[in-house]
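Morning!

As promised:
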Amino acid sequence: MATPLSDALLICEHCDTVYRRRPLARGEVAQCQRCRAVLERHQGLSVNALLALVLTALIMFVQANVWPIITLGLNGQYSNSTLWGMIIAMWREQAKVVSVLAAFTLFFFPLLKMLTLGWLLWFARSGRRAPGFTPMMVTLHYIGPWTMSEVFVLGALVAIVKAHVYFDVLADPGIYAYAVLTLLITIFAGVDLRRLWALTAERGG
Amino acid sequence: MSALPRASERGLVGCHVCGLACSDVPFRRDPEARVACPRCGSALHRRKPGSYGRTWALLIAAFIMYIPANVVPIMRTASLNDIDDNTILSGVVELWVKGSPDLAVIVFIASIVVPMLKFFTLGTLLVTSQRRSGWALPQRARLYRLIEFIGYWSMLDVFVVSLLTALVRFNVLSRVEPLPGVIFFGLTVVLTMLASMSFDPRLIWDGRDTDD
């Protein structure tokens, strides 16, 4: 059977080089000597800070989904849409594949990611492993690359510029909520969630 | 800087999912052994299983999808007396002429340059790694990290078409409809993402075990 080694060893995911883990100073990034990939970053944010960020992101996500994103005007007629308005419109217009893709990458996966992370961090505050810790960590690993809210924000920007030529364009609250959400996602990009394994005790919640 | 030990030489395996370093994995006696990670329960592999085959298959599938994605129009703009079908490239040109050139550059990079770069890079990585080439190792490793990082931005155009479809609904005056090209394009992006995920960057370094 495989034996787990202590957290003292670190294996580069990109080239398989083995390192002995060393404590990092504030702002320090450990780089692989062979392939130059980032091995580990100093984690400046505490569990509480991460939890606060996840909750903020969740609130923003609700706002971003409840409010319309953009309103277009043409000769006194107005038309606006929320994220789900867009997903439903694509379904009706015979682009069901795109509709499903958008529903998962812009709604279900980001929501699942935030809820899972919130749950895990809530228990990690007291050094405990939340019920369902292991399957949730594995799920987070797999859905990680499939959340695309930040791409959607840039897409909304392009749509505004394209529509601007023919229509009156009004930015709605949804797009501002999305802007804040993008900012939060950027902060989170440098966070290595795998440290939750080491942060929480082995005995389970 | 002397020898940098590699996990596979030391009988160690790093879990692909949780990153845990494991020893005593019985791959040396039985390379097909099914061993679970003691921490997260995922299957342990020295390299991602069937990496070459899967990556080739997904990359070729993505390329097949990429042809109609560019040839077939992705969006129809219909107004009172005019129907205008746009492909990805003509959409970029239109944005350049009528809207803002800087945004056109961003869309051009996301929709044209990034997918092309992915085909070219993954193709090169597959060929060179399969031939166990020792050519430009650090650069190849960096290229892989680049396409992994920028890959999903190609979804940009798909979301633009989706938003415009939902927004431009002024009955006979003006309408936007998605056309099949956008479906092919969305599938191309998903397939290239799956392809770059199934490629194992450790294979780049597996050819010549010369320590630098």
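Helices of chain A lie at 47-66, 83-92, 96-124, 133-143, 149-164, 173-189, 195-199.

Hope this helps with the figure draft.
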